[in-house]
Amino acid sequence: MKILLMGNPNVGKSVVFSRLTGVRVIASNYPGTTVGYTRGETKLGEDTAEVIDVPGTYTLEPTSEAEEVALEMLHTGDVVINVVNATNLERNLYLTLQLLEKGVPVVVALNIWDDTKHLGIDINLDKLRELLGVPVVPTVAVTGEGIKELVENIPKAASPRLPPRSRDERWAAVGSIVDQVQNVTHRHHTWRERLSDASVKPLSGGIIALVIMAASFIVVRFIGESLIGYVFDPLFDNLWAPVLMRLSELLQGGGFLHDIVIGKLIGGQVDFVQSFGLLSGGLYIPFAMVLPYVFAFYLVLSLLEDVGYLPRLAVMVDTIMHRLGLHGYAIIPTLLGFGCNVPAVLATRILESKRERFIAATLISIAVPCAALQAMIFGLVGARGVQYVVIVYGTLFVVWIILGMILRFAVRGFTPELLIEIPPYRLPQWRAMLQKVWMRVSGFLVEAIPIILGAVLVINILYFFGVFEAIASFTAPVVTNLLGLPEEAVTAIVIGFLRKDVALGMLAPLALSAKQLVIGSVVLAMFFPCIATFVVLLRELGVVNMLKSMGIMIAAALITGGILNLIL
Amino acid sequence: MPVERQVTLTRMRAGQSGIVAYLQGGRGLVNRLSALGIIPGKRITKVSSTLMRGPVTVEVDRARVAIGFGMASRILVQLDDGPTK
User: Fold this and answer.
1) Chain A environment of B47 (Cβ under 8 Å)
2) Where are the beta strands (DSSP E) in A349-408?
3) Strands A106-111, A79-85: pairing kind
4) Could you tell me which residues are beta bridge partners of residue B57?
């Protein structure tokens, strides 16, 4: 049996899904968190049923690509659990009535039930069941309340097979049902609502946006730096370094195996940043340089997501984003990109048109450095002085703006206007939020560490056999003349295709000037997507558009690097 | 009888309330707006607007919706200053 979870965006389908299946999925407080399908299984008595978390849709008359797919999915389901936001029956029941016209058995989960009480909303459940003709179960998915009853009611799912209606007739029917089952008592605005309104007003909203962005940046840096300085550096220096030195002695301090496992000794000692072996840099880069920032970034991002701030930020930046051929909601994939470009490119699905998705994905791949790369920029460029970090970020920001303005005119098609629901601010559920952070961090560890170790291995082997020297002399004119980098830097640019953090790490032993390090960081950030991003770009944009996007990346990286080389 | 006052959403002041009278636009516009419950006959309250022809935020059925400026300028509202229910 196949059970579909369907409902308006941001009503908690993904949380219900996790409760039913035990499969953890990313859930947040903004419409469009789920852009793909997640499947899981749940027990129904003796049987096992397949459960599918369908992206949110307001209507079955498709108005966007995501809604078209939702409609196609509907034909494959045996039962639909229609997750309804109990605090907004007026809008949510429209989809419910459409589902009841389709002849598929439906159970209604009245989610966010706990909020109805303090919002002064009283719903007559028996009357609602009678009018809809299907089981209606109040639920609070975040706490698990009502989930057991929901499961018990799945076999009782029914379809009244309502006659097809026109849109106006359906809205009229919704109005009539709401009048009969719902009683709203007047109440005063809460502080959360006042704060909510303040964050979309011109002056207060602008100040709130700036404060939140600045605070996020400071908190991420503080947590990242502290973890490195007080936890990971001492661990590596005091516990791991002596072990490697013993091993180095065992390997007679040099040779093929020594170079691969430990790398080159610097002044007779292991230097975690410059010795580029599997057990030195290969472990230090992911664990002690990147992981602390990945953790810190996702902690802050998850908090902003769960509180519900991001759609408000989208409103505040809408005007700016239109200059780049996008609308405000594109800020959400962009912010995700500062963690990892892969989910960011996937999240561009929340944008309505192909044109926006192309522009957003291209801009993210070029001008939004992922957390891993940023951690290395902080670590290596930051060591030369804060001003150089500022130049790197400033350059990427200017590129983002200028390239966006060019793409706005160059890419055909149109950008629809912003139209989004702004969810109420919610206090985060700490447990669920920390689980989400853990999912993302462990996702980083599982996906990044094998590639990082593989990259270090390949780099050392290629170095040993002199392959890079051949590439370096071949590409020298571009690298040395245009970008002003030493020939060897090309190896880092090539490796950037595997992992950008490792690639930037390869620049560390080259004794670059601060200017060269800035150019190297900017070019690495812009030049090519890493292989994981490459794969999703290919899948999301298609071959032709992906090639276009890559062409833009290479051109933009060389031009920007060349300009930096001239003016710095 | 109060004076008939119909204005576009963009010309309403923050805090003003009224009933959606008419959506001036094609099928696409009407589809997208009605999906969010913005249909003629609905009570709508303007929460805020943003600078430089930015989006307008409104309250409809206790939900907040942000609407791009161009779209908001095609929503006609019959002003009556304040909810009647």
Assistant:
1) 197, 200
2) none
3) parallel
4) B48, B66
C-alpha distances out from residue A321 to A160, A318, A359, B33, B55, Å: 45, 5, 11, 21, 12
ipTM of the complex: 0.89
Nearest-CB residue to A167 (from B34, B36, B55): B34
Q: If you write DSSP's letter for every residue of A494-548 in order, what string do you get?
A: HHTTT-HHHHHHHHGGG---HHHHHHHHHHHHHH---HHHHHHHHHHH-HHHHHH
Report d(CA A519, CA A558) in Å as an integer: 10
**Looking at residues A136-148, what average pLDDT do you find?**
93
Q: Give SS3 for A304.
A: helix
Pairing outcome for strands B75-79 and B17-23: antiparallel
By C-alpha distance, which of A304, A391, A339, A416 is closest to A567? A391
Query: What DSSP string describes A450-490?
Result: HHHHHHHHHHHHHHHTTHHHHHHHHHHIIIIIIT---TTHH
Instruction: Count residue pairs from A and B with Cβ separation < 8 A.
Output: 107
B52, B60, B68 member nearest A419 (Cβ)? B68
A55-114 confidence digits (pLDDT tens): 888 888 876 666 777 788 888 889 999 999 999 999 999 999 999 998 899 999 999 999
Distance in angstroms (rounded) separating the CA atoms of residues A496 and A528? 7
How many helices (H) does chain B have, and how many strands (E)?
A: 2, 6
Check A202 against B49: CB less than 8 A apart: yes
User: What is d(CA A526, CA A106) in angstroms, rounded to the nearest whole number?
Assistant: 49
- The CA distances from residue A448 to A99, A353, A506, A529, in Å, are 42, 32, 17, 15
- Expressed in angstroms, the distance from the first to the final Cα of chain A is 64
In this predicted structure, what is the pLDDT of residue B85? 40
Answer for the pair A121, A86: CB distance below 8 angstroms, yes or no: yes
DSSP, res A155: G
Q: What angle do CA A461, A465, A467 make, to 5 degrees?
A: 95
Contact A305, A387 (CB under 8 A): no
**Which residue of chain A has the CA closest to B73?**
A417
To the nearest whole Å, the CA of A197 is away from the closest chain B CA by 7
Kind of pairing between the strands at B63-67 and B56-60: antiparallel
Structure tokens given for A423: 């969810």
Q: Is residue A223 scored above 90 in pLDDT?
A: yes
Look at A417 and B70 and tell me if their CB atoms are within 8 Å: yes
Q: How many residues does chain B have?
A: 85
Q: Are the CB atoms for A58 and A469 separated by under 8 Å?
A: no
Q: What is the DSSP secondary structure assignment for residue A157, as one 8-state letter?
A: -
Contact A248, A258 (CB under 8 A): yes
Backbone angles phi, psi at A411, to 5 degrees: -95, 125
Helices (H), A65-201: 65-74, 89-101, 113-118, 125-132, 147-153, 167-181, 191-198
Cβ-defined contact of A119 to B62 (cutoff 8 Å)? yes
